[in-house]
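Sample 1 of the test manifest.
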Amino acid sequence: MKKKKWEHSIWIVGMTVASLIMMIPIIMMFSTSFKTMEEIKSPVFHLLPEHFSLVNYQNAMSNGNWLIYFRNSICITGTAVVFSLLFNSIAGYAFARLKFRGSRIMFILLMVGLMMPPQVTMLPTFLILAKFPLMGGNNLLGAGGTGLVNTCAGLVIPLISGSYGVFMCKQFYENFPRSLDEAAEIDGAGKWRTYFMIYLPNSKAILATLGLLKAVAVWNDYMWPLVMTNSESMKTVQLALTMFKTESGVQWNQMMAAAVLAALPMFVLFLCAQKYFIQGIVTSGLK
Amino acid sequence: MNQKNIAGKRKSKSDKCAYAMIFPAYFTFTVFILIPIFVVFYYSITNFNMYSKPELAGLKNYINLFGDGDFIISIKNTLFYTILTLFPQLALGLLVAIMLYRKSRLLPLFRTAFYIPNVMSMVCISMVWLWIYDPTFGVLNLILKFFGCAAEQWLQDTKMAMPCIILMSIWKSCGYSMVIFLSGLTSIPDSLYEAASLDGAGPIKKFYYITWPMLRPTTFFLLVTGIVNSFSVFEQVNIMTGGGPLKTTTTIVHQIYRRGFLEFKMGYASAMSVMLLAFSILVTAFVFKYGSQGQDVDVS
């Protein structure tokens, strides 16, 4: 018994050291964001800043219109999460529980989206959105204007569908007891009612997992906004962050301050939803 | 039960509302993923450039691709990146998962420490590591100087740039593999380990005969998704090095971005996209063929 306890302390020490090594870049991101440029340039390295100051945050935020960038990112992330959760879970329910012609082949086709790098279809997707009929000055045939380029809709719509989400929801709903459906049927509930009254309220774990994954993916996305937007008013937080990388004289402290602010929302979200998240991964059979 | 498969009977039992239920998800999938696959094939045989109407050009784009030095280099770089990122990341993830697979109140803390880089954006992480790798003020060189070693150029060095990007990517994604492996480990019944203990098996034997075979589906899943992810590496390259120095870090998707969205050679970039799709399918099929062998380990 004594040996076990000893072993456990070694484990704790070992894992603490490993975790700290893992966290070094993040700790440094935080500490640098409080430092002055003189301290960064000095040859002596301190892990913690000598004088804490929030002035870097002020300077970073006055470099560009960050209120707009944050508004854009929050707007895009929020819409994409809400719609993708609703659409994917209802489709997952249909594939898991309902019988309909072509369901097998349609599901297999949907899985194509899992096996393919999303960048393969980036070019045509961009062109489809640029030629979207009756939008952004386009006529019925999709010519003349810029379509959905440089709009929130253009950024969000392609992110709403997700083979991954439908797949995970299907797996999750297949583990539900069949007796639930039978009970609902005896009570005279239709399929829509069954989904909204029984399935949806019981899928907190999977929705939290998928919601978190989607939020992280959309908030952190860099390539799609880079391709899809070119105006200052449609910039997202991630695009704005790259402005700090200049050819010479990079203000590292301001850059780190902006990086902290860009990362913070996802840190908070992850820490809040962590319990559901791990549970969701285990129960949805994602392995 | 088999009777339900008879067409007539199935039709009468069919739920019509299912089509309405899958419509929103399936519609966006069709318009933004399925149709674009065909469109990209079509554009790849045209000389489309955004401004004029596309004209059929046959296989000219593909022939040009194989004479394009940048593209050949980008394929090499992408493969190099995939192999050197994927395997260490999986090994590290598995190691940490096994270390963390025990009961402790500190577990969520350690798990968070390893997973947190994964919820940060690639842009954020690139910014932090740009500073770490900075030749004059970077931490890495400060540490090297402290130990009396010569300073390195890191991202400006043609030999070091790619390994630097690879190291950063392993750091970011090993936490993801860890969480998935951890969920795989929890599904292995304890009775197997107890039986092995009774037979006198040590930890190494237990790993080799129980853990590894039982984790096969998990490893397989991570391998397939990891390949697809690594093949599409772009963000860290575009932000940190812009493909340089001397094109030593340019990747396939970086080339697609440059040709398609900066030079507007949409037809040519489409041909590259088709090649990317072909590589992904080829490697995934290869993994499916050889990776899923012996997947049905009979343990019951």
